[in-house]
Amino acid sequence: MRKVFGGKVAVRDLTLTVPRGEIFGFLGPNGAGKSTSIKLLLGLARPTSGEAFVLGAPSGDVEIRRKIGFLPENFRFYEWLTPAELLHLHGRLCGVDNSKLSERVPALIDLVGLTPHIDKRLQNFSKGMLQRVGLAQALIHEPDIIFLDEPTSGLDPLGRRMVRDIIRAQRDRGATVFLNSHLLSEIEITCDQVVFIREGEVVTSRDMRKQHEEAVRVEVRARKLSPECVSGLSRWSASVQVDEERLTLTAQSREPLPDILRYLVDAGADVYQFTPQRLSLEELFISVMGEDRGF
Amino acid sequence: MGVWIMAGITFREAARKKILWTALLAGLAFLLVFGIGLRFQVGDFRNSAVPPFLRYQVISAMLMIGLYTVDLLAVVMTTLTSVDTISGEITSGTIHAIATKPLARWQILIGKWLGFVAMAGVYVALMFWGTIAEGYWIGGVMAQHPVRGSLLVFLECIVALSVTFMFGTWFSTLTSGVITLGLLGVAFLGGWLEQMSGFTEGSRLAMVGIISSLVMPSEAIWRRAAFEMESPLSGSLQFSPFADISIPSGAMIGYACVYLLIALGVAVYHFGERDL
Question: What residue in B sits closest to A73 (Cα-Cα)?
């Protein structure tokens, strides 16, 4: 998809596939086109060129929206409603009948931790509480795919954990979760797969479930490291550096790490520390996006 | 179904706006002042030598002025309460949670429009029939065709509402409000210029009024309503500001209906096409 506002390109050439039943992270710096991309996928905006399909239907298809849930970045609604009234309204708009709503509404309010505030009007809610209500309205019709735009930005650590648990529970019941968040640590521990976009294009992607297949840097602190012992490490690593008692090597995956440790011990080294380190999502983000360019 | 849910929530949303309650309070104050004025006038007539025929015409003219005030209040209230329902919700992002639900954009817009139509209907019914009741019980006068009159005032509100919706799909709340009120001002001025042209049979002045009514037919609808409600005698005697000097035809009312539908159609089309 491509989206141009006036002369400004918001989404340059976005091409991606989101597998069903996964938690899909959508990452990028400010102004990368994330929110615009979500609007295009939801039919809130029309692409200048290209097309998107959600659950097999063209984006914007009215009927398929019965299977789509959406939490906007800054969820706002009529502030004179209570959480229960808001959920009833959104449920009815999604075609959920009243008997189901009478069960689901209190259950969802409890799920997002707002039962003590069930009779309060939204005008008295903090940003975090509004986000919790917004998350509940996105789930009221048990959608097959849920778009969450910065769902934890206004939440405290306990709230973030709650959202994380809800997201996983949705995945476990078979739903797909499309997650846009700036909180890389949240993405890292929640998502099955992430893509990085910059200037409206996918730059790279990462399958979070295959981290064991990725290159790992290992820091070793050991004494009695003979030159023969160090040279013998070349069978696992092309990059071995020694600085007195400190040895650093890069293995192609986590698989050979037990063999490497066993080899060092058998070669007579006294090993005090053996620490595998992989690139965190934040490090990967910075390496992909470069330094802050004032987006 | 979605249309009616939207209409219901919009009616409730509109009913919570301060401007509605301000307009209702202003309306109640108006009814109070109007009732007191009528009572004083009737009392003064009892002690005067003014013939009953003339008394009736004066009280009838007062009733028409009262109904004209109701008309202005209703149109302005309808415009001001509805002016941010589209543009405001687009700007704040409130519309995003609604527009991603399984209902078409036209259902959202028509639902909102129906909500405001219902609110305008309630307002017109309360204020218009309140004034009519005061005229009857205190002043002893009755409009000639009050049902037709009230329907025309209601139509005028719906025309203003549809124009407000149309601009609301394009512009910000402030801009669309200024444009709509500006058009109502043009119609107001044009209507009175056309009325004045009747005294001198000035066709050029009448043309200005007609063109103004074509641009925004709200005032023409009121003048037709006034024609329907005034007694034939006081109308022909030119005893009130709304006398039968220049009467908009039935075709003008038909034009106003078409105008309304076009404005609403443009609003539906543009809201359906634009990015949110």
Answer: B93
Residue B103 sits at the chain A interface (C-beta within 8 Å): yes
Please enumerate in sequence order all residues whose Cβ is within 8 A of that of A165, keeping only pairs 6 or more positions apart, or say none.
none
Give me the tens of pLDDT residue by residue for chain A, a chain 295 residues long.
999 988 888 998 899 999 999 999 998 888 888 889 999 999 999 999 999 999 999 998 999 999 999 999 888 888 889 999 999 999 999 999 999 999 999 999 999 999 999 889 998 899 889 999 999 999 999 999 999 998 888 888 888 899 999 999 999 999 999 999 878 888 888 899 999 888 888 888 888 887 666 777 889 999 988 889 998 998 888 778 888 889 988 887 788 899 999 999 999 999 999 998 876 777 777 766 765 554 4
Cα nearest neighbour of B95 on chain A: A77
CA distance A228 to B250: 107
B61 in Cβ contact with B240 (< 8 Å):
yes
Interchain pair A44, B16: CB under 8 A: no
By Cβ distance, the residue of A68, A93, A137 closest to B2 is A93
Quote the tokens at residue B77: 């209230």
ipTM of the prediction: 0.79
B97 contacts on A by Cβ (under 8 Å): 70, 72, 75, 77, 90, 134, 137
Cα(A104)–Cα(B252) distance, rounded to whole angstroms?
Answer: 53
Q: Chain A residue closest to B96 (CA)?
A: A72
How many whole angstroms separate alpha carbon B15 and alpha carbon A35?
A: 33
Instruction: Report the length, in residues, of chain B.
Output: 276
Q: Are A239 and A250 in contact (CB under 8 A)?
A: yes
Task: Please check whether residue A218 is in contact with residue A277, taking contact to mean a CB–CB distance below 8 angstroms.
Answer: yes
Which residue numbers of A have CB closer than 8 Å to B's CBs?
Answer: 39, 42-46, 62-66, 68, 70, 72-78, 80, 89-90, 92-95, 134, 137
Q: Delineate the domains of chain A, giving CATH numbers in brackets.
A: 3-210 (3.40.50.300), 215-278 (3.30.70.260)
Q: Is B104–A77 a contact, with Cβ atoms under 8 angstroms apart?
A: no
